[in-house]
Fold each of these.
Amino acid sequence: MLSRNVKRALLDSRWPLPPTFLLPWAATLTTVSHATEASNIPPPLVNASQHVSPERLERRHDQTSSNTSPAAAPTLQPANTSTPPALSESVRTLLPVLAAQGPHYITAHLYDRPYLLTAGDTVRLPFHMKNVEPGDVLRLNRASVLGSREYTLKAAAATPALKSPSMSSSLVLDDTTGSLESHSMVMPEPGVSSSGSRIMPPHFVPHIAAGKVSYLDERLFVCRAVVMGVESEPLRVKEKTKRRQRKIKKVKSKHRYTILRVKELRGPVCAAAQAMHTGLAHKDYGISSPPSHWSYAVRVSLSQIFAMPGPSYAPKNFVMSTS
Amino acid sequence: MSTPTRFFRITLLRSAIGLPTRTSGVLKALGLHRRLKTVYHPVTQDVAGQVFAVKELVDVQEVDRALSDKEMKQLRQPDSGFYVERRAGERVMGS
């Protein structure tokens, strides 16, 4: 089943040799679950920071620029493996459970507006999407929440307040003397963007930072939608006039709205496996040559999950945000 | 005059409605006509004095480069959140 297809994909001559620790492939399978080891977790999640709350996963957004034309598939490079964020305990233990518990839902963001979607949904966008024709397949790559019936994966909260760090001061309890001191927060380095948005502002930009959502790593899900067509509202006529003025000006409005249909939504881990089957892996995850390690390791962990006798995962009401 | 190397990045956070006319005059001189508007001014004693007059209303940062209006507008534009993976009528890759 899944293991056969994965094995066939591994042995496919297209792909370069997998990492050594996976050869021979069958030898790594054991009844002991290694799903939560660091090597089996995708790099964006390997070292999520410990100081964030257990429900949050710190996301490392490593895309170079979102201004690249969509036709040239954006090359998603692996997350910064040098200093990846720390992984919180709940994410480490529950991500495989979330992945195995389909169907999934997602809060996708189009132009920063959230849309709660699942596979098979029909979405009427509140705007007319330009330069697309009915039948075009869109890949939605901005999401803040990915969840299943009982578990939810959220991106870490990142938005700072309106005031720049140089303006605010925080009271810090000095560990050595126990006294409260006032410290001015350091201004961020120019060119460094915490939110990792498409253009890097050279310094803190309050009105851009305020109200922004932080997103999950794009490699954690695959969400495709087809453009079904364009709908238009009934004709509305607004009459504009003033009191004791006989002239009435009429303004017509007939807005158009694009209809999308979500044709597939793959949760974490499953996305990697499915991508290998369809051969779109190199486009989705930047796997050119050599493929990134985590895709193999994650598929191995998935096969281990299915090989385990019966569901005996972590208890349902865990910290990782149950519904 | 030499090109200034450092700039004040001034953002109006609080309105001057109800405040003396002099205060709103200072904001107008700085170019802050509405809330959350951001302007860049070189670091000079004049500008520093103006900022000091309205220091309770603004957020100030010292930066190296002044962004133009076009650059700021580009920064405001949100991510589209999607890209066209396949056009209608195209063949799927690999099939």
Amino acid sequence: MKMEEVSMSSLDNSKLEGLAQDILSDLVEDACLGLCFEVHRAVKQGYFFLDDTDQESMRDFEIVDQPGLDVFGQVYNQWKNKECVCPNCSRSIAASRFAPHLEKCLGMGRNSSRIANRRIVTGNNTNNKSESDQEDNDDVNDNDWSYGAEKKAKKRKSEKNPNSPRRSKSFKHKSRPAQAFMGP
Amino acid sequence: MSKDSQMRAAINQKLIEMGERERLKELLRAKLVECGWKDQLKAHCKDVIREKGLEHVTVEDLVTDVTPKGRALVPDSVKKELLQRIRAFLAQHATL
């Protein structure tokens, strides 16, 4: 039994070796065919002999390495100082400022909506300021859930009335809990 | 004999299904480019094309002319490396 097994395994090995060779042969043939197709396509599309041009033409297309020019020899900052006319407000704007200007002018883009929102909230607050209690102002300022509070956190200081009784915040914070419990 | 061909078919299928054949193909291609085989063969193609004429070259012309030369030009080191990988795969996945 053992001897049979040994001979069996050597047979298998030669079989396996033959199989491996065949697989390699297939792979090589695939590679050759791939190359043939590639070359044939290049011939039919006309780009096969492209790198065989004469020296003179080669020199025409050499990479350009001069200041102020890109690799193709084109001037690349020539449009920086040109002016464009805005289609919306008909003003003459510098080219590099044109895109941001359009954003504001047309009312589109991320910043424009933020500014618009801010204006709405500011508009509401300035309308209500004369009517609301000090407490309400506190709530608008300290309450994290308020929509406008976060965005206006920075602007708040500049909008503060220097004469408002709320000036000294620390004093207010101490008395506030008492106020809240006691009601309006 | 049919058991033999059955086994071969099974192995080939496994080779493809596990993506190993694709990997081997890519490996072979990369090696052949690296060792200059592709450029050599391309130069030979140029001769064939010039001979047959640019307009009249067919795929068959190229294949019949290029394939035998291509086979012969594969360096031994590349063959060895590929065979090693194939044998490893067979050792792992060939059930007899």
